[in-house]
Design goal:
Layout: H1 3-9, H2 24-35, E1 46-51, H3 54-63, H4 68-72, E2 75-82, H5 84-92, H6 103-126, E3 130-134, H7 141-147, E4 154-163, H8 177-180, H9 190-208, H10 217-225, H11 232-239
Antiparallel strand pairs: 1-2, 2-4, 3-4
């Protein structure tokens, strides 16, 4: 075990922050750490927009599902799939630009953005900051794109809040290792593992809510997955010149 592994294993999402800005040198350091993540073909199709302006953070708080802690925390990072630079490279070298016409651009960009975000999470938490990823940035992509003045061929795929924790939350239990760590082939005993995990999560929720909730993992995730996905995402990406041919 070492400090890096300890930081990863002690991750928890923080949703309560002090109204305190991060030092500028830490903002740059966190982005440098994110930049060091692996990237497909060294394409680096990721741009990170740091939002510290209180008015903008308040707007993002509303756009991302009225999550108040976005406005409270020191910074909101918008992680964007960015093929605008790739388009410029093709123009510079007199080559056609087709990557965004296919789903592969979304897959590559999302994967690279996720790797970059995880690097930033580990770096931020190693410095004592709290973090929480924000999927709600996809709730109203059109409005986020307009607010952050994002050009064509760029799309905000996920957000990350970083700040000084007001209070620490408990580390949330994960699925049993045997559920996700399969050897040689897929383990079809997933229902057994889910039953085990539901018991663990019931106890966790009881402790977390002082007995007010016993909601397990199956109940929680069913509430999410029974709702149809954000249908506006495809249209918003098409407006950014993805899938245009």
């Amino acid at each position: 075990m070492n400090q890096v592994i300890d930081t990863i294993l002690n991750h928890r999402s923080i949703r309560s922050y002090l109204d305190k800005e991060l030092p500028e040198e830490h903002l740059e350091l966190l982005v440098r750490c994110a930049q060091k993540a692996p990237s497909s073909n060294n394409g680096q199709p990721v741009t990170i927009i740091a939002v510290t302006d209180k008015a903008k953070k308040a707007q993002l708080s509303e756009l991302c599902g009225n999550q108040a802690f976005i406005a409270e925390a020191g910074v909101f990072f918008a992680f964007c799939i960015d093929f605008y630079r790739g388009k410029l490279a093709c123009e510079k070298t007199n080559n056609e630009f087709y990557i965004t016409d296919e789903l592969s651009a979304t897959v590559i960009g999302t994967f690279d953005a996720g790797l970059a975000m995880q690097n930033m999470i580990v770096a931020a938490e190693s410095l004592g900051y709290g973090t929480v990823p924000i999927g709600g940035i996809l709730n109203d992509s059109h409005a986020v794109i307009k607010l952050l003045e994002i050009p064509d061929y760029v799309f905000p795929i996920c957000g990350l809040v970083v700040g000084f924790p007001k209070e620490q939350s408990a580390v949330k239990p994960r699925l049993p290792l045997k559920a996700v760590f399969n050897r040689e082939k897929y383990d079809m005993n997933q229902r057994i593992y889910i039953d085990e995990y539901d018991e663990v999560m019931t106890k966790y929720m009881e402790e977390r809510t002082n007995g007010e909730s016993r909601r397990n993992w199956s109940e929680t995730i069913s509430r999410v997955y029974r709702v149809k996905g954000r249908r506006s995402i495809k249209q918003a990406m098409e407006n950014q010149k993805f899938y245009n041919r």
